[in-house]
Amino acid sequence: MKTFSSLIALSLLVAAATAVRADDPSPEEQAKKDQLRIAVQQICPVSGQKLGDHGTPIKVTVGEKKEVIFLCCQGCLQQKIDPKHWATIHGNMAKAQEVCPVMEKPLPKNPKWTIVNGQMVYVCCPPCTDKVARNPGEFLKKVDAYYASNIQTGSTKQ
Fold first, then answer.
1. pLDDT tens per residue across span 73-106
2. pTM above 0.90, yes or no
3. Most distant CA pair in the chain: distance in Å?
4. String of DSSP letters for 59-121
5. Dihedral (C-alpha) 10, 13, 14, 19: value to the nearest 10 degrees?
6. SS3 of residue 135 by DSSP
7. CA-to-CA distance for 70 and 58, rounded, in angstroms?
């Protein structure tokens, strides 16, 4: 009986671990998401150079909220983010997103933003940030769809 209980407990543990991994994107899906974000971010937050001009962009995590961004090269790894370039990146990302994923209305001129699972998400108002935090998967999918649509139509060009 003890062995049977152990087997059931082990089965539940494996099932729970598998369920957690089911939400994680495959390496191919993650590569597509990264390419989407590189296209939207457009420039390096350190040098201001176009991502891809110095080889494959480098994925890094910054800040307390563990935001995922891309740098243009190894040389930028030890440098500080330039506030001017950071503002440009925010503008690029908000422009590419274009729509509040919660209210599904155009973003205001100065949208609010939050970081969810390492990704910036722009919203129309503070209550929307709470809704995004409660259901990040749903809203991150919407943001990715907005990015893809705007890249396809060319509206992310500076």
1. 999 999 999 999 999 999 999 999 999 999 999 9
2. no
3. 67
4. EEEETTTTEEEEESSGGGTTSPPPHHHHHHHHHHHHHHH-B-TTT-SBPPSS-EEEEETTEEE
5. 160
6. coil
7. 5
